[in-house]
Amino acid sequence: MRKTMNKLIVAFIAFFSILIISNISNAGDLKLKVLDYQVQLNADGTADVVETWRIYIEDTNTLFKTFEIDSSKYKEINNVKVQEVKSSGNVDFTKIYQEKYHVDKNCFYALKNKKGQFEIAWGVHAEDTTRTYKISYTIVDAVKNYADCSEFYWQFISTESEIPANLVTGTIKLPYAVTNKEDLKTWAHGPLNGNITITSYDTINFEVEDLEENTMLEARVVTPTYVFSTNQNISNQNKLQSILLQEQEWADEANRRREEMIQRQENIKAAIKIFFIVSNVIGIILAIIIIKKIIKYHKELKQHPIIKPEMETKYFRDIPDEKATPAQAGFLYYFKSTGLQYNMSKVLSATMLDLCLKGYISFEPIDGKKDEIKVTLKQKDIVTLTEDEKIVYELLEKVANNETKSFTMKEFEKYAKNHSSTVLSKINKIEEQAKNIEEEKGNYDKQSIKTFEKWIAKGIGYTFLTIFSIGMMQILFIPSLIAAIYSYIISSRYNQLTQKRSK
Q1: Kind of pairing, strands 143-145 and 60-68?
Q2: Are 120 and 137 in contact (CB under 8 A)?
Q3: For residue range 167-198, what is the model confidence (pLDDT) as tens digits?
Q4: Is the pTM of this model over 0.85?
């Protein structure tokens, strides 16, 4: 009975542990709350960029920003500056000229790293906090003048970025306004939920919410060449038509993906709706079934009132049953509390003392060794012992020296550690034998305990259903909770020793 109960309790605890763990959100080390880009394009084709990072940092000492080195996109990045934004004023970081994995606090470097990328890294040395940083730099030859247009094509976030962002915003300013707004064209590449808009003759804004890690974000701006009048990054080829064709192909692909995404969302919504309807129908049916069972349980509870001892209780100084062994007495004594198994050390000690009184073993102190006792087995027939006593005696025989038929208690402890499976098997047999004997005496009813275990299993099942119903079928919550309570109450009516009558 106790083993079954323990298994059920362990399963119950494991279920709750999984439930709790599954609801814990494992936050990453870094997350951008807001990432903002302010891009000023200049007439000479350079771009002055200011990135503002409002970022949550957990146990991190260095932040990194990398750029793929691509001569077709830009010539170089210079004038790098890093600041921490504080209410008391911005703090300028000190530039160093050595690549480090752990950059000193309030220092930064901006150089080509070992991977062949241009990298900006700065030391933050922060733990569980939100901070704001400004990273400013100039991109040389960011704009290219073709024969029929000028192009700014820049990847703000690469697929290698491992920092998610709640919100990404940006503003791109032209050096001069275009005379005809139709001549200003812009596109954004990245998540389908992003937006890029031309807000005036010289300004473009873009925005993306919930940008996941390893997700690319880039923008492309095309203008007439007069906007970048002093740009020396020049090509004589015509590029406008190929850009328009390329962007149209990408737009068509993006629209196709967006339509597929919308269709998937609609399918999911339809599936959820169907699931909701079906689950509610099932919930109603189950609720009716459980309510019927509750009515049945209520009747059964009335038929099995709390069992009170009918025998006149007397006070005994010693165990009333003089023939009861320590295991048998212990089984009855610990039945309603911890169970015999959890008190087996006491049972073993008491059984050894009982065997000593019966002349099967003897105890004697060892000279010169404080608190050290030697146990000696007597040559005596064990046929008259009960089964639980025989098990203990046979265990002592295994521990004893073959020649002297004796052992010390330290040797007994050592044997128990080295043969734990054997000792545990013997202990389980002691409890089982004690149960059998008490059942023969009419003090214990196995069938009643099986019924108790059945009701406990029902109670745990209804408890799981109650928890499940919180998120899935709320209609089941009250019925399953009431059914669980009834199951536990009824189970307690069967978790009893017998009502043994004296004649």
Answers
A1: unpaired
A2: yes
A3: 999 999 999 999 999 999 999 999 888 899 99
A4: no
